[in-house]
Design brief:
Blueprint lengths: L2 H23 L5 H6 L1 H18 L11 H18 L7 H18 L4 H13 L5 H15 L4 H21 L5 H24 L1 H8 L8 H14 L6
């Protein structure tokens, strides 16, 4: 057998523990335990997601034979976030761990991760503890790497990828030089994301902008933000 095939049983053994933990937490039987110790269960879940991401460091994208094992693990993570997402809203650990896992899966699964990412993005952006600068940087990297293949994903989630960071950008105070730098950095990163989308999958950006007559705030906010940068880039500060 090829070396990658020989490693597959070891991968399954390494994934078994954290995946079983996440599956248990998403089961109905775990509801009482979660209710009695929500913080402990959230930390347990975050450590399990971290463990899956850490295991992935030993596996390269070329080892395609292991893709089904990663897909199965991601399915369990996605199911947990869908069923217990509210459990993690006040805990930044799960948000950070899921973003770490997403970054690793982009390296390990390549284009094959775009499907599972569809289930993970809503949680990442909905969390009140979301690091929107890190998320926007990650989204920019995904578009850079996968280019036009990201178009369906961007078309579906552009309102989240753009409006959530934009809302935070508008609310960031400017009471100190550090806060001004943080606001400028978020605004610049958001502009870079829009630029990459315009270059790699322009339909996803043009479509909402050409439909300004609809009730969605996306079109007007997109145009307003882009005009702000064109009018005076210093305004982002």
């Amino acid at each position: 057998l090829p070396a990658s095939e020989q490693m597959r049983p070891a991968l399954r053994r390494l994934l078994e523990g954290p995946v079983s933990t996440l599956a248990e937490l998403s089961s109905e039987a775990a509801a009482a335990r979660i209710a009695s110790d929500p913080q402990g269960c959230a930390a347990w879940a975050a450590r399990s997601v971290d463990a899956i991401g850490t295991v992935s460091k030993g596996f390269a994208r070329a080892q395609a034979c292991s893709a089904p094992d990663w897909a199965a693990a991601l399915q369990v993570v996605g199911r947990l976030l869908e069923q217990r997402g509210q459990l993690f809203d006040g805990d930044g650990g799960m948000s950070r761990s899921t973003l770490f896992l997403c970054r690793r899966m982009v390296d390990v699964l390549g284009d094959s991760f775009l499907g599972p990412m569809d289930a993970l993005l809503p949680f990442l952006y909905a969390s009140s503890q979301a690091d929107l600068l890190e998320l926007t940087t990650f989204a920019h990297q995904v578009v850079c790497q996968h280019q036009k293949k990201t178009q369906p994903l961007i078309q579906k989630w552009l309102h989240v990828l753009f409006l959530r960071p934009l809302e935070a950008f508008k609310q960031l105070p400017e009471d100190s030089e550090q806060l001004k730098r943080e606001k400028f950095e978020l605004g610049t990163t958001l502009l870079l994301l829009l630029k990459e989308i315009a270059q790699r999958c322009s339909v996803a950006l043009l479509e909402p902008m050409l439909l300004q007559g609809n009730s969605s705030p996306l079109a007007s906010e997109l145009v307003g933000f882009l005009l702000l940068g064109l009018k005076d880039p210093q305004e982002l500060k």
